[in-house]
Design goal:
By secondary structure, this protein is of the alpha+beta class. Helices cover 42% and strands 11% of the residues. The longest helix is centred in the middle third of the chain and has 22 residues, at 81-102. It is globular, with a radius of gyration of 21 Å.
Length: 274
Amino acid sequence: MYYWLLMPYRINRIREMINAKDKLGTEDFKEILCDFHSRLADRYTDELIKIISTANDLSANGQKALSLLNSWDRTPIAESTATTIFEEFYAAFIKNSLSDELGEDLFKELSSVIIHNKFEYLWRDSSSSWIDYVNTQHFETFDEIVLLSFKETVEWLEKNVDKDPANWKWGNIHQLNLKHFLGSVKILNKIFGFNKGTFSVDGSFHTVNPMAYSFHNPDSVVYGTSQRHVFNMANLTESYVAIPTGTSGIPASKYYCNQIEMFLNNDFRKRSLA
């Protein structure tokens, strides 16, 4: 359980999938657990595209980025370039909206959950005083900050990922490392292989199958599903499990982290509880 109020995009997607059928079976619940479609992206992408489309001074890569957003299915997967654009824009927009009022040091102290709630608030109230840059005489509008953030996103990706938008794949940025607490000791990790990774992964903080990152360190996945279970109470022989770190904590064991590939591929291992 969490102690912060989270936006309802994940639970709304779960409800949508549950209500799609009169009866649900084992395969349906496996699909729900592994779902990556983003209702948050559905909520904001069309409006974002509409604002960006008003600009007449986009760079060549800016125009390509807009085209990628237009054709995006709003499903954050590792191979998607539009996902990267959306996620990096999200970060740029909230920084441009809040950091001038708070200052860089205080802004860095904000938790990701507060930031996500603030993003929602600002898009509902585009006249908020948070939007304006306090250190300029001009009063910046919501659309101006959106366009500025989009252009900065493109420039950041050109500088830090690649000049070619075709290489702005989400998996090049969004990565998972499974870290053992003893793996922080380099010599021990080298000898025993405690840590596993790096893996390019699908998803984000707003998908049913969460692969969430810290807002201030978006390169690393910091939390998500620790394991997946589907129990068929009518027939316990038809139950399924996926535990990425395996069922042994001993690195020498063949069961140590032996389900990582299966987990990342959204597969399951059959488990009989009868």
